[in-house]
Amino acid sequence: MSDKVVVTGIGLLTANGLNTEDVWSATLSGRSGLATISRFDADQYPARIAGEVSGFVPEQHIPGRLIPQTDHMTRMALAAAEGAVRDAKVDLTNLPEFGAGVVTAATAGGFEFGQRELENLWSKGPEHVSPYQSFAWFYAVNTGQISIRHGLKGPAGVLVGDQAGGLDAVAQARRQVRKGLELMITGGADSALCPWGWVAQLASNRISRAAEPDRAYLPFDGRACGYVPGEGAAMLVLRPAAGRDVVPAEAYGEIAGHAATFDRRSAAGTSPALRKAIEIALADASLTPGEIDVVFADGHAVRGLDDAEAAAVADVFGARRVPVTVPKTMVGRLYSAGPVLDLALALLAIRDGVIPPTVNSTPDPDHVLDLVLGEPRAQQLSTALVLARGYGGFNSAMVVKSMEG
């Protein structure tokens, strides 16, 4: 069996679209989903801008029996996974009994569900706490619910590494396929847009406190004042390129390389471990820096972190030698789902020969990056590098390439 692992299905749910093609269309048009929080009264908090998913009706995507036992993030994860499976055009019942599995990433867990049950506990008493609280808040719940929903009995797992965890989950799914599995569903889903979750996010002191959505999230910009949190889900179907009923020409592309590293002091203005992750991922993909067509940057919009990422990219690729983009400026940082969204957008960019833009930012002259701004850039693409970093020093880098690459 070939070691090549390909993406055959994509499912997306973000603040600017409720399915893959809508998200892609919105991204190319520069349509932002950032706005003042509407799910709760945020006036008393120092930050009030987020990337909320609006218009999502869970009952249209998952069985009604699952509604009382799931948090908002799990409902989005189930919908995105369903979209990815549908997009892959695969009949899961035709696979070997233990031939398919799930690995996802999560950062916050089911905060909204947990807050509601805590309110019930303190205002009404323990008998009013849902028995589903025992698992609905848990980081691994998305993996479990997706596995149950689709009858998948193969390997299952979850990774918790903040934003970097999304790429690490895809890398783990890739390993399982290389070991002989027929299919893995993988990706990330996160949502913590409730008062309890919002307070937890504010504790990092990295959240933008700008009052205007178009000034709130400005990576690699001298006016950068922190990132905007978002919510959403991004799921992929991974399969062996030489697997049964897999037509390589119909795949979006190959997961060609990956690496994960750790910086003890990720905000120190330099990130040797991020640079090393890029180098190892390129080596894993058997590519040189000159063969990478575009970089989907992490784009934290925190000055020290931006400086470190810009320096790492310039050290590997040279000053302004590779286009760089941060399309998550339109939806916010989706934590575990963020880099998987970037992977999906990178594959769609390769498919359509266009680099999606970074919106609102004005490049800081100290950052020697060729940042794609304002409008999409038409360009023939065969490879892309996606970068992700997690709170505390986690780094992850992943290379995708076209089937012809």
CATH class of the largest domain: Alpha Beta
Give the helices and strands as they follow along the chain. EHEEHEHHHEHEHHEEHEHEHEEEEE
Range of helix content:
25-40%
Report how far the terminal alpha carbons are from each other. 19 Å
Q: What do the pLDDT scores average to? A: 93
Strand order of the largest sheet: 5-4-6-7-1-8-15-14-9-10-12
CATH superfamily of the largest domain: Thiolase/Chalcone synthase
Q: Mind describing the biggest β-sheet?
A: 11 strands, mixed
Total strands: the figure is 15
Structural class: alpha/beta
Global shape: globular
Number of domains: 2
Number of helices: 11
Spans of at least 5 consecutive residues with low confidence: none
Proper CATH architecture of the largest domain: 3-Layer(aba) Sandwich
Q: Bin the strand percentage.
A: 15-25%
CATH topology of the largest domain: Peroxisomal Thiolase, Chain A, domain 1
Cα-atom radius of gyration: 20 Å
Quick description:
One of its GO terms (biological process) is fatty acid biosynthetic process. The chain has 405 residues and is of the alpha/beta class.
Question: What report would you give on this structure?
Answer:
One of its GO terms (biological process) is fatty acid biosynthetic process. Keywords: Acyltransferase, Transferase. Belongs to the thiolase-like superfamily. Beta-ketoacyl-ACP synthases family. One of its GO terms (molecular function) is 3-oxoacyl-[acyl-carrier-protein] synthase activity. The protein has helices at residues 20-28, 72-88, 111-124, 133-136, 141-150, 164-178, 195-202, 213-216, 272-284, 303-317, 337-352; strands at residues 5-13, 35-36, 49-50, 100-105, 156-159, 183-190, 232-240, 253-262, 295-296, 323-325, 354-355, 370-371, 377-378, 383-390, 394-401. It has 405 residues and is an alpha/beta fold. The chain folds into 2 domains: 5-250, Peroxisomal Thiolase, Chain A, domain 1, CATH 3.40.47; 257-401, Thiolase/Chalcone synthase (Peroxisomal Thiolase, Chain A, domain 1, 3-Layer(aba) Sandwich). Strand 14 and strand 15 (394-401) form a beta hairpin. Helix 6 packs across helix 11 (337-352). The longest helix is centred in the first third of the chain and has 17 residues, at 72-88. The mean pLDDT is 93.
